[in-house]
Each structure stands twice: as C-alpha cells, then as structure tokens.
Amino acid sequence: MPNQPQDAEVRGVREQWTTQALYSRPMPGGGYVRVELLVSEPANLAAERLRGRVVMERRSYAPPALEDEQLVVEEVEGDDAKIVVAELFRIARDNAAIARRVLRRKAASVRAG
Fold first, then answer.
1. Which residues pair with 51 in a beta bridge?
2. Which of 64, 70, 77 is nearest to 24 (CA)?
C-alpha cells in the first residue's frame, strides 16, 4: 500500500498523510507485522512531519473481529526519517518487543474502559 493518502486528525486539525509501507513479515502464530512511514504535507518540506508506525494485522484464517483487523503496535514521530525508521525496524523484527507493546496497549484500553 505505498503512497496511500489518508486523513488524520491531529490536535483538532485535519491533515493529509501519505503512507509508505517499508517492511512486512509474517508473524510466527499467523498474521503480519508491517512498518509504515507516514509523511504529512510531502509537497511542503518546511511543514513536513514524519510519523512511523508498526502495525500488526490479524491472521487471515481467524474469525473476524473489528478490534483485531489492524493493531497499531507503536508510533514514532520525528524530524529525521533514518532515526524514525531505525526505531520502527528494531521493534518490528523483535517478537518480544511487539508482544510487550500489544499487552501494554490492551491493559491501557481495559483501564480506560
């Protein structure tokens, strides 16, 4: 899904983000993990912001569940694409790091709910 535009509401302002998938691999128990780089305002270098994320997609053979379709494991924002991408790749290649972040997010959502 390279260069897929999407809207995001950040701090009450609607922005246009361009998504670029940089890396994808299958997970041991099924499903996939993907690294995406999102760039806001790619035509305006002065206003450009970088945000990257590690996304997990559910197993294709599992029963459908809306909350499991796609899970954002981690988001990183910064000015230097090399630093953002390096951090995301470090997480995406480490199954234990992914599991810790998924457990943290689920625990936070249980506390909030």
1. 38, 77
2. 70
Is the pLDDT assigned to residue 64 strictly greater than 60? no
Q: What is the pLDDT of residue 58?
A: 74
Structure tokens at 82: 């090399």
84: tokens are 């953002």
Distance CA 40, CA 51 (A): 8
**What's the pLDDT band for 20 if we cut at 50, 70, 90?**
confident
Domain that holds residue 41: 4-112
The count of other CB atoms within 10 Å of the CB of residue 79 is: 9
| Domain total of the chain | 1
Phi, psi at residue 87, to the nearest 5°?
Answer: -65, -40
- Ranges assigned E (strand) in the chain: 4-10, 13-26, 32-40, 49-57, 70-78
